[in-house]
Amino acid sequence: MTEHNLASEHHLASATEPGAATAAAATSRRTVLTGAAALAAVGFVPGAAAAAPRVRSPRHARVTVLGTTDLHGNVFNWDYFKNTEYDDSKHNDIGLAKIATLVKAIREDRGVSSTLMIDAGDTIQGTPLAYYYAKVDPINGGAGSPVHPMAAAMNEIGYDAAALGNHEFNYGIDVLRTWQSQLEFPLLAANALDAASGLPAFEPYVIKKVHVHGERPVKVGILGLTNPGIAIWDRANVEGRMTFPGLVEQAAKYVPEMKRRGADIVIVSAHSGSKPSSSYGDALPYPENASSQVAEQVPGIDAILVGHAHEEIPEKWVTNAKTGKQVLLTEPLKWGMRLAVLTIDVERTRTGWRLEKIGSQLLDANTVDEDRQVVKTLTDQHEKVVSYVNSVIGSCTTAMSAQRAVVEDVAAIDFVNYVQADAVRSALKGTADEALPVLSIAAPFNRDAAIPAGQVTVRDVAGLYIFDNTLLAVKVTGAQVRDYLEFSAQYFQQVDGSRSYAIDELIRATTATAPNGTPDYNYDIVAGLDKRLTYDIDVSRPAGDRIRNLRYEGADLDPAQEFALAINNYRQSGGGNYPHVKTAPVLYNRQAEIRQLLIDWVIAQQTIDPATFSTDDWQLVRGDGTPIQIS
């Protein structure tokens, strides 16, 4: 499946015991290469996207800009929740250790002095490795404080600059500033301003001098832009401290300044997608995904390294409306799966250098080995986190399984709904929406998920939530809840209910021969927090007319009653095309990872007792209201 933005295919099913293998020692499922052979294997052709040879004459030169984005805490090609080498349906590899191999090979081919390395943000959040050094053994800048693994890896590779992503703010500004202090290159964000002074809270840009065969150096300006959605998603961390104006507005301010300061080439590193859209509606005057608008509306930009959308864009061209110039956009997917290579040919003029030709390509990390030095530098931290993920964090009084969650109300899904709703209720205290009753939605993501009776590990809990979704709350009415449930009930086949059915006979699964079915992750179960929401799904009826006996605390649900609905970011942003929620008022959005909320709840409570949160609130019925028999 593909989930919007921060969701993923990062499956967290059962794994081998810790200690059997590490990222550094795992046997690869593929042949891996290094150096020039690695470049050939990933399809890199020296000079690709720019026809001229590296040096044609003293009047011509070539600059290479390498780029990553949305690394999300990935150093090794490792799935911490499976406790094994990372793999997905397309056999991508991930992590800075593999990117480092590609970078070294490019520098060897193109020359270290004429190659720059940049990133487009979302670096310190997304894996247990990143979380561990933000929350469990946090970096704090004091004596004995660890170096964040993403700082150590990026310093080892030798980045020249990085833009801030929205997830950099997830752990608070203090953690962000400490991480910044550990970097050997600048963090850039022209549109992150100090709330009191209105001045930049980070460097807006940097101008790097690239030395080429004894001539005047080529001055490459790198402008960093982050996402205005930070003001909403991390309001708790930034309100009153920083503001985040629009990307177009700040680029229009700083690109001319960079030109005045002698920048021959201007590259923008923007944590903002290329397709105009927004996950927060009209809550802010500035668009979330605005890289194309920056290219179209701000003269003087040569290329944009795009981030945030987790898309693969080898090369895209946008015409600037004022100059008619073609601006290059490229986005190297996510997690270190790809490395962007921007090839820039320039010509010497009387006053500096002029762009002749520019192009880009993406290199794939999945055929190269991990860089030995990065592995050596980070192995100790990695092994510590492997032990943490496999550590016992609590216990469960009764085993919980998701095996029948698609056809029965089970405790495993009730647990997810309970934790989500409880987090929303706590967040709304002291606000104008404090009195709203809370409902929650959860999907049976992983039928193999199970919490055992007895000791529970981090991996056990994480198996319930196999996607990197974050939690929101929106305001909905009783009538909208009914519409939502009717939409969800499309998941089931229409049957008369006259016999016993196997699970797969009841669901409209998506297959090659039935593409219009509904995958498990798009079947939502709705539950109340303090008061019960109960309903029947009559599978003898056609889709759109199946919800029966919809009641809230025993009474028929009032269509006008308002609720706070706990929901994940994929669903709220339109994933699954559910009604109402994409346009509903957002009450809460701190971009807290739902998987981590579950883990944190177990750590805090120590004991999972299904009796405290699990009730039978929904069932499948036939036309006479009796339950369907399921084998």
List keywords for this structure.
single chain, 631 residues, Purple Acid Phosphatase, chain A, domain 2, 5'-nucleotidase,  domain 2, 2 domains, six-stranded mixed β-sheet, 32 strands, disordered N terminus
Explain what the structure shows.
- By secondary structure, this protein is of the alpha/beta class.
- It folds into two domains: about 35-385, 4-Layer Sandwich (Purple Acid Phosphatase, chain A, domain 2), CATH 3.60.21.10; about 390-630, 5'-nucleotidase,  domain 2.
- About 25% of the residues lie in helices and about 25% in strands.
- The strands form nine sheets. A six-stranded mixed β-sheet has the order 6-5-4-1-15-16, with helices on one face. A six-stranded mixed β-sheet has the order 8-9-11-12-14-13.
- A hairpin with a 4-residue loop joins strand 15 and strand 16.
- The chain is elongated.
- It catalyses: a ribonucleoside 3'-phosphate + H2O = a ribonucleoside + phosphate; a nucleoside 2',3'-cyclic phosphate + H2O = a nucleoside 3'-phosphate + H(+).
- This is 5'-nucleotidase C-terminal domain-containing protein.
- One of its GO terms (biological process) is nucleotide catabolic process.
